[in-house]
Amino acid sequence: MLYRVRTGVQWRDLPERFGPWETVYKRHRRWSADGTWKMLLAQIQAAEDAAGRVDWDVSVVSTAVRAHQHAAGARRAPLPAAFQKGARAGTNEADPVLRRLAVRLEEVVASASAWDAPAAASPPKFTSPPTDGAGPSPSR
């Protein structure tokens, strides 16, 4: 699931090393419905906050946020609580896959600060056009 979030690949295009894509998809849907993802996020946030690695100051400046035309008519009903026969909410706590995922998510969050820092030798992302008259004109 982390691979898909990171790469944006379609479910059907998951590498075979992750197993059948249907299994990964169904587990993701089940964990979304029963609150497992929310619980994982809360645990990771609490651990990172306790370690002093979370900056809770967020600034958003916007007067309007436009939705895409396809955003109209989205499903309003929440997903069903259980996707499996006999499944109950909150039964994933002892799941070894969930424990490994929580550990991996903590590793990803811990290494996120390294991703944010630009490399010292990396080139600038934008270079301004020459102002001395040499080179192409900025007009199109």
Automatic annotation (TrEMBL):
Pfam family, one: DUF4096
Region feature (Disordered): 114-140
Residues in coiled coil: none
Recorded superkingdom: Bacteria
Bias (Low complexity): 114-124
Residue span, Insertion element IS402-like domain: 1-40
Alphabetical list of InterPro entries matching this protein: IS402-like_dom, Transposase_6_like
Protein name listed in UniProt: Insertion element IS402-like domain-containing protein
Biological source species: Streptomyces rimosus subsp. rimosus
